[in-house]
């Protein structure tokens, strides 16, 4: 009798059980995770459309690699900007493609009746009610029957391994591509927060402007991002890369050597902005929170957290222990997975 009950508990009936899918819709990269399978989709947040036929042809990394190389009738779109959804129709097409290629195969075991997809996602605190509603509707139109939305800062903190319902304040600095968020998490909510739009994508433009002014060389966006990730470090390590672009003087191809010190010189002011914003956040926080931050340190997440020596840089500037968390680039998506392991707590912090 007990074995029958156990089998009934383990039986997955599509009518009564949801298929949980987690979405981290970032400005630079989109990540999707499925149930216990982990992250099954990790692609650039780009897609290409044929403006003549209105057909979407390229998605993800494929679309990103052809930026600046397409004819006039092929337009490359980035649906997300500074963490906010700004092209609804393009995002719906992108999500449909991502779900079809990465999620549907895991639903093959349900040969007759497919379970409803329950999407769990997040949005930054700076998003308005309308912008949050757009995120929910984009997932609904992409195939999700139900959508749960939480604050991105809470999901990221959970992905760092923190108990977000604890009353021990934690400061998380998310160094993303579209947005840099510094959030103090305590008691299941965001106590205080600052957000900067001078994030990874903006840094790419600054690198392009630097090479334009100093070396008379015009570089593409992808080239600048590649330079930033390969050369930038705060360990005083001097790496060199040969880079080719278009000469401002002649309009012909031109090669120069760029060093790590060049990239540091171009971007150091941006990191000073981050330091100033973090210092201001801590200074304006109540004494109890400031004391907890000093004791617990600052957790770094996001792709830029992978820059060598960045933790030491913040330690030197802020005089507070700073460390890079495990899986720093995927902290938000792992946080969504972790939150759903205790659904009653997830619904306490759900925005919708």
| Biggest β-sheet: strands ordered side by side in the sheet | 3-2-1-9-10
Topology, number of strands: 18
Order of helices and strands: HEEEEEHEEEHEHEHEEEHEHEEHHEHEHH
CATH superfamily of the largest domain: ATPase, nucleotide binding domain
- CATH-level-2 architecture of the largest domain: 2-Layer Sandwich
Helix content: 25-40%
Terminal-residue CA separation: 41 Å
Strand content: 25-35%
- The level 1 CATH classification of the largest domain is Alpha Beta
Principal-axis shape equals flat
Brief summary of the model shown:
It is built from 12 helices and 18 strands. The protein is an alpha+beta fold and 352 residues long. The protein has a 5-stranded mixed β-sheet, sandwiched between helices.
Notes on the structure:
This protein is α+β, with helices and mostly antiparallel strands. It has 2 domains: 2-155 and 332-349, ATPase, nucleotide binding domain (Nucleotidyltransferase, domain 5, 2-Layer Sandwich); 162-324, Nucleotidyltransferase, domain 5, CATH 3.30.420.40. 39% of the residues lie in helices and 27% in strands. It contains 12 helices and 18 strands. The strands form 5 sheets. The protein has a 5-stranded mixed β-sheet with strand order 3-2-1-9-10, with helices on both faces. The longest helix is centred in the C-terminal third of the chain and has 25 residues, at 260-284. It is flat and about 65 Å long. Residues 1-15 have low confidence and may be disordered.
């Amino acid at each position: 009798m007990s074995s029958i009950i156990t089998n009934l508990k383990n039986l997955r009936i599509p009518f009564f059980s949801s298929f949980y899918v987690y979405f981290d819709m970032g400005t630079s990269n989109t990540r999707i995770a499925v149930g216990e399978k982990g992250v099954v989709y990790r692609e650039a947040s780009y897609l290409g459309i044929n403006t003549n036929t209105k057909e979407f042809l390229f998605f993800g990394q494929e679309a990103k690699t052809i930026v600046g190389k397409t004819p006039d009738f092929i337009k490359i779109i980035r649906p997300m900007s500074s963490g906010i959804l700004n092209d609804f129709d393009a995002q719906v097409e992108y999500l449909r493609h991502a779900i079809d290629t990465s999620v549907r195969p895991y639903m093959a075991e349900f040969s007759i009746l497919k379970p409803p997809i329950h999407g769990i996602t997040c949005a930054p605190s700076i998003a308005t009610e309308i912008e949050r509603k757009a995120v929910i509707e984009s997932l609904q139109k992409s195939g999700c029957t139900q959508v749960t939305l939480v604050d991105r800062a809470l999901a990221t903190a959970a992905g760092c391994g923190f108990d977000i319902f604890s009353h021990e304040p934690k400061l998380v600095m998310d160094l993303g591509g579209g947005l840099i968020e510094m959030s103090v998490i305590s008691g299941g909510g965001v106590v205080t927060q600052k957000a900067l739009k001078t994030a990874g994508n903006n840094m790419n433009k600054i690198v392009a402007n630097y090479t334009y002014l100093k070396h008379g060389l015009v570089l593409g966006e992808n080239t600048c991002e590649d330079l930033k990730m390969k050369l930038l470090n705060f360990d005083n390590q001097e790496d060199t890369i040969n880079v080719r672009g278009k000469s401002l003087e002649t309009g012909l191809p031109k090669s120069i050597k760029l060093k790590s010190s060049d990239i540091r010189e171009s971007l150091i002011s941006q990191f000073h902005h981050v330091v100033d914003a973090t210092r201001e956040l801590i200074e304006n926080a109540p004494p109890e929170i400031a004391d907890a931050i000093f004791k617990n340190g600052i957790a770094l997440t996001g792709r830029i957290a992978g820059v060598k020596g960045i933790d030491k840089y913040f330690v030197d500037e802020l005089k507070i222990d700073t460390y890079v968390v495990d899986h720093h680039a995927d902290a938000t998506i792992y946080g969504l997975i972790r939150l759903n392991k205790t659904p009653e707590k997830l619904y306490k912090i759900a925005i919708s």
